[in-house]
Amino acid sequence: MCGILRMTGDQVVEEFVNLCKVVFSPHLDIAQRTLRLEEGMKRIVGKFSGGSEGRKMYSEEDVCKTFVCAAPAHNALHARLFRNYCSRVNASPDCTLWEAGRATTAMPDLFSPITIGPEYIGELFISGELGWNNPTDMLTEEASRVFKDRHISCIVNVGSGHPGHLSLSSGLVDLFSHIAIDCERASERMERRFRKVPSLYMRLSVEQGMQNLDINLSNLHEVVSHTQSYLQGTRVISNVDNLLRDLLFRPERILVDTISGVVPSIAETLYPMVCPQPTAYFTGRQVELQTLQNHFTSPSESCRVGVLYGIGGGGKTQIGLQFIHLYRDIFSEIFFVDASDKLTLENSLKAIANESSEKPSVDDAMRLLRTRCENWLLFLDNAADPTLNLRPYVSWPHGNVLITTRNHDVRSHAPKCNIWVDKLEVEDATELLLRGVNVQRSSGIQELALKIVHELGYLALAINQARAFLASGLCTLDEYLPIYMENRKTLMEDKSIQTTDDYEYTVYTTWTISFNRLSPDAVHLFELLCYMHHESIPCRLFDEAWRIFEREDEDAVPPTVASFLSGFTTVDSTWDVLRFRKLIREILSFSLFEFNIINYSISLHPLVQQWAQHHSQHRHDIIPAAQTLISLATPRGESGEDYAMRISLLPHLRESTKSGVQLHYSLLPRAGNVYRDGGMIRENFGICQRAFSETHLQLGSNDLDTLNCMGELALAYQALGENYSALKVAQEVLELRKQVQSKEHPKTLTAMDNLARVYSDLGQYQDALKLNEEVLELKERVLGNEHPDTLTATSNLAIVHWRLGQHQDALKLNEKVLEVRKRVLGDEHPDTLRTMNNLAVVHRALGQYQDALKLHGEVLQRRKRVLGNGHPDTLMTMSNLAVIHWEFGQYRDALKLNEEVVELRKRVLGNEHPDTLMTMSNLAVIHLNLGQYQDALKPNEEMLELRKRVLGNEHPDTLMTMSNLAVVYRDLGQYQAALKLNEEVVELRKTVLGSEHPQTLATMSNLAIVYGDLGQYQDALELNEEVLELKKRVLGNEHPETLTTMSNLAVVHKHLRQYRHALKLNEEVLELRKPVLGNEHPEILTAMSDLAVVRKHLGQYEDALKLNEEVLRLRKRVLGNEHPDTLMTMNNHAVVHSNLGQYQYARELHMHVLELRGRVLGPEHPHTIKSAKRVEVLQRKLHVEDGTKQRRPRKRDAIKRFFGLSLK
């Protein structure tokens, strides 16, 4: 129409911009916008028609014949042509030029329709937005009528951009999407129609960058930029040159009469396709290249065939091109063939035979290759059509064939060399990203690049697109990831004009082409998979979901799932596994996912998953459908296979519930079981709360399903450490079970068992013991001795015995349970591993540390493999193993392991969970053993406050923290504080645990030590003798705790100058401990040190000196030079030298000890003060020997002198 008005290109742009400013001003409604459009069109027509706004569309003066299309509102399938010339067919409406323009722009949601013609009988027109925006079909029909018996030089189609999701208001999105897609489809039809006539049809349309532009004047500069970039492309420049040449010379290519039907081919010269060069940025793939080189250079009596297959965008073609580039010399000739479909493949083959035939055919090419007995290579690139049989093109008596394809089935042609092409190696991926990007290489840059390629899934095409984007200077390396996360879809659809290879598609368009060829059922299956985790989706999921679906309440299953699963029901009402596998094979033929035939699972590339989620038009239906399928597939049994299935479903449930859980209440418990077994206790708690709430609302409080949900809720509270809430719910469940069912019903017994566990966690061990014994008796009678529920009750009873200090009873029960569970459930079932863990804990309590270490190590290895590193049960075993390291004196190993567990438990369970507090308590004890008293003090004080608030003042774990804190006070020299706290703990433990509980005895032993520190040796002697007698009876004569008390008693005898008694006890302890702990255990070194002190008091100085030297050497290596125990040995060593009269050496050694103790323990610590006193005594002795007398200093003067401190 601009041509009819004889407007120049600059004039068209100027008037268009001015018109847009007026028409698309903000806040205009459709009527206002339409009025402004009509006024603007009239102004433009008048301006370029000598002032006449009413110029008619038809004019005899026009030389160039022009028409535009619009659709009648009441018959949109048949467009009307508005012509500037006469025609006897489909006569044009009699209208003005601006009316014709209005008819073609009357798009709904933008402008009002227009009525053209006489009043009452005029026609109402809307634009030709669907079907007529690219009216090339109508052009060919019109030309055959108007230009009969004439020749055509060229047909030019100018488009407005590649189809994409336009950023318009919701009411316009579908409209413009359909317009763009409609235009492209029409163009594709023309290209297919005219493909046999070279250079006849040409389409100019900006391919990238126009997808996300909206109707906004502010981004017109982007239109200009994208258009200019498009016109700079090599292919486009060539097309424009050809177009100008055709307009000048008018070659007669084809008769007009033939263009409206099937266009016959015309004689043309076929040239073989030149094999392209690989991209200059090719990186890595050494394994694939070496495999190809080995295969194509190996001896063979027939044709060698190699296949590179895999996901679109993985780099298959580039690997093939790089292989040819590197090893071209081993082939006599290279024939490059585009095998994307049968027609292009056959044309490429014809070109090979061009030299030997005037009219080459496919048979000529096949004959040529069959008779040319040379080492040629036929490269069949992009054999993507699953319907194309490649067998005729690989069955040669000699030669070589290399195929790249997405179709897994093609690999059957190359049993000796089929290579799956997927992700790049990490180093190769980062190298590809950084090549050509102007950055200075550094560790920081490498780390940024690593993050980017990880997010891009190490996919070659995606990384290459990112590299091109970075190389363009549009952003820096550290800016790319935030931009990518916000504009993922846009960047994956973007293609740089200045490409480094001949690949014509972007990441997303590559997969869209494959997706569009899937059947509807395959599309449905693929979309469901894309809302699960991308790795290891078990195909069994669909089978199990179908089986449960057959029995489930129809209301619980969304219609999309019901329809999908119903399609897999055979006439015999069984699962149609063959149909399911056919769908798998269909999707696999386009390499949209991987299929693991060994474990029968599916994996998708992460970018494919993201693309599919962006591409999906049914997101709101697919997400709940995926959640429902996963929940239906969740087994409720307790076998090892059921447990493994639940664990395998966890990542898929998490992925599908990212935007929230959308499940029917009856399926919520299944989802909760997945979270529970996966160790996600908070997520499980949320599910359990919702399940109970909705089930109670729908079915009432006495319904069995409601009771089941209540029971799960009690367990969820317990897992969170909220034991008082768990107690309340568990008690209510038990009462309701007794009313609704019976006391001996298996569900009632389970409720009793669960309540007993809560009692145990609350420290109410006698209540737990009584209830557990009752439950076990009932379960053995009702269910049998080896029923899983009976074994659980036995295991729970063993835990209570252990907590009550009845270790032999706990050992016997755990060994019984372990034997049965291994036999019934298998070695790696979670219940078996739980029993092994409990048994290891009992072995430790019995002092059987080697047995405990072996069991804990085995359990940890299996739990990491079965449950994962962050599962609460795995963390429990890690914590227990750290305790064993501590028992063996491997404090630094214990410290490292405990620090790791503390961080993981804080993240998984929370800061105030009882298990987190327990690990923090253990960590403080290890700091204590490492002599890091200040590091132990603050955590223990914080721990005590937390445990009092969370567990209560008399909970066993609270008392344990009080006991540990008392030890810290004692090691810091705060003996009165330690005394007070120990006396309080002793009384509480006697009340809560009993007088003979091992923990009670441990606190009594600690109290005796403090008595000794305070010089109350007689009290210490009596208490130690009482504790020793009790420990021998409760734990045995050789238990480590018994030996510790014997050692403590020896120290008291020493202070009471009863050296012979002390010597005998020390020698006995050392003899018993060495076989169990080894020569370098801290406890052994303590026993040796005590023995040396006793020998010194007995005047056996040489023996004492020898023992001290050995202990000092070992403590320096095991504990470090500045550990308080090392300093104690140095002090004792100095004392022996002093006793031998070696005062100068003794003084130097004491000075060194004083300096270190002042720094490590502080100047006010009793040990520091004692060292200062010894230095002063030795100083005085040395002065006496010199004949000099000095007054005897007070202790504080000595401290002040050596440290220069101001003391209060």
Explain how this protein is built.
- It is elongated, with a radius of gyration of 43 Å.
- Helix 44 packs antiparallel against helix 45 (1082-1097).
- The chain has 50 helices and 16 strands.
- The strands form five sheets. The chain has a five-stranded parallel sheet. Strands 2-1-4-3 form a four-stranded antiparallel sheet, with helices on one face.
- 60% of the residues lie in helices and 5% in strands.
- Mean pLDDT is 80; it is low at 163-181, 209-213, 264-271, 495-505 and 1188-1208.
- The longest helix has 24 residues, at 170-193.
- The chain has 1208 residues and is mainly alpha-helical.
Radius of gyration: 43 Å
Low-confidence stretches: 163-181, 209-213, 264-271, 495-505, 1188-1208
Fraction of residues in H or I helices: 55-70%
Overall mean confidence score, pLDDT: 80
The total beta strand count reads 16
Report the principal-axis shape: elongated
